[in-house]
Transcriptional regulator, LacI family
Amino acid sequence: MKRATSHQVATLANVSRTTVSFVLNNVPGMGISDETRERVLAAARQLGYVPNAMALSLASGATQTIGLLMPHDDQVHANVDAYIPRFLTGVTLTCQASGYKVLFEPLNHAAPAGACLNLVDSGRIDGLIALNPRQADFSYLNDAAGNGFPLIVFGSNLTGHDNVHSIDADNRDAARRATEHLLALGHRRIAHIAFAHDDYPIVRERLLGFRDAMQAADLEVDPAWVSYGNYSAQSGAESMRAILARSSGVTALFAGNDTIAFGAMAALRDAGLSIPDDMAIVGYDDIPLAAYAAPPLTTMRTEPFTEGSEAAAMLLRIMAGESSARAHVKAIVPLVVRRSCGASPT
Amino acid sequence: MKRATSHQVATLANVSRTTVSFVLNNVPGMGISDETRERVLAAARQLGYVPNAMALSLASGATQTIGLLMPHDDQVHANVDAYIPRFLTGVTLTCQASGYKVLFEPLNHAAPAGACLNLVDSGRIDGLIALNPRQADFSYLNDAAGNGFPLIVFGSNLTGHDNVHSIDADNRDAARRATEHLLALGHRRIAHIAFAHDDYPIVRERLLGFRDAMQAADLEVDPAWVSYGNYSAQSGAESMRAILARSSGVTALFAGNDTIAFGAMAALRDAGLSIPDDMAIVGYDDIPLAAYAAPPLTTMRTEPFTEGSEAAAMLLRIMAGESSARAHVKAIVPLVVRRSCGASPT
DNA sequence: TTGTAAGCGTTATCAT
DNA sequence: ATGATAACGCTTACAA
């Protein structure tokens, strides 16, 4: 793999490396003769010259690359989760449009701080987006931000870290509204299956919102009604079966996400139960397949692609030195009503 | 964002930069005194020293980064496709285990050659995995490989490009077997909905396999039976409705992928048709949700995570200078029978 | 056992 | 209008 250097271009064009740089970067006010410019351009073309990105980064101090940090447990997460890939796409396309590359960094329990720190400290990236970081990740993220490193935290509305720019959906509020939808339909015994362990702030938020709604309706939530999945539809099915087995008399389910909901629905069908007659269901995320569930799933709509784009756009802005004040954006999460909860309020 | 340099470490430890480098890299046979080593290590720790990756790359000629190239059309593809994210995860985790980062590069129709070429020519990456490249992408991929650039092509078994290492599933054979499953069940009028336009070799292969099976059974395939989707469940539903509207009397569907199948199933349910009684369906991919469809979807099982891991492992091996001969691996695609085609052969 | 110096490919500041 | 030269942070012969 031989690559041409600016030196070779200079030699071929009979000029100095400086001139090559001036021509190729269109440096203004340098009064390069048209003749010279042509010669340099021709030489570059002939040699297939492309500037070396590493040398450029070293000299300029910028890598034109950002990092995307995301949680990742045991293959399951990024493997099965439907939100992340779309977020990633949003981030990537937005960055691409501005000439930035994105470095993808799944973060598992095993290597908590190391990977990220290294990414930042080794000067490999100019900015970082952390998607749904856990509590444990937050201390060094906050440090990095404190040192002036451009950082966007997406999806964990932790307080007391005013250094970091953040974008959030109000998961708690959305979960409350999801539950209220069920309540308004007349349901009183409502189950919740969290989509993961609750050391992720996001799952805790949804659980909290669920409880908020129940409490506001003066309803006790029986511990037998809540269960924890692990992102997969399978865990949703198992949780549903467990809840059914406890014969807790629940008539509705607020699923922590749509994948969980799909699993629960399958378990219900297998048990010969009807949706929504025996069990009304609302999900969360509005994954592309949600509208194609049987029956079509009522769910809270998130916009991963848009959110990824916005996170990237915000990061780009910060890196460009605009927007000095710490921003804390809240996204809106609408309820989209389909058929999994039946027709209208009782 | 201030970062410590090896120079500062050297100063603090009262040694030269060379010594710092020797100590930190554990260069053997250099006989560094334990006392000195300790002092250097302490200084590095105290300063939070992390070597600058760009400088390191420039000096060593290696970036410890690979690129992942993938097709991408109009948001739809990476946004809705269920295969890619899992492949990506497999690639990333395998690379991570070897200390490699991965640069994610979606490639859309608009910027065909540019993005990839630049990635390679700018020396930003040490190797490249191209996932399902289109015919058009192949010429420069082949060039890069010809220049000795480590490259794995996954999923487009193009011939006449012996420079490139490739991994493939035999899509044509798999599609044939999927169709044969339907045939064995007694179906004669079988529809196919391709999951994308057929300038992707992979969708052409599946179409070809479908035709192979039909032809082997001495069956004509009516043009009214085949339709083209665009990755989305929605396009699957539309295609299904179109096929139904042509009242072509088909009794079975081989869907180009599972997402398409989900859409088709929804359209069927809406039309009051029963699966599998009115329409038997086999999909392709075995996405995580396939087993949770209503009814559970019979489909061809791909293993995106494993395939991604293997592609990465192979690339890593090539970059390490092992395996000189061009490898062309074929993966196996088993049929997994669930309930969307009914019980047993007629 | 440790230090000096050259080189990796750029850009940028000066002279000329 | 163009060309030396230094600087970016590191590795690695080679010297001492």
Notes: Chain B touches chain A through 63 residues (CB under 8 Å). The longest strand of chain B covers residues 65-71. The first helix of chain B runs from residue 6 to 13. The domain at 171-302+335-341 of chain B is CATH 3.40.50.2300 (Rossmann fold).
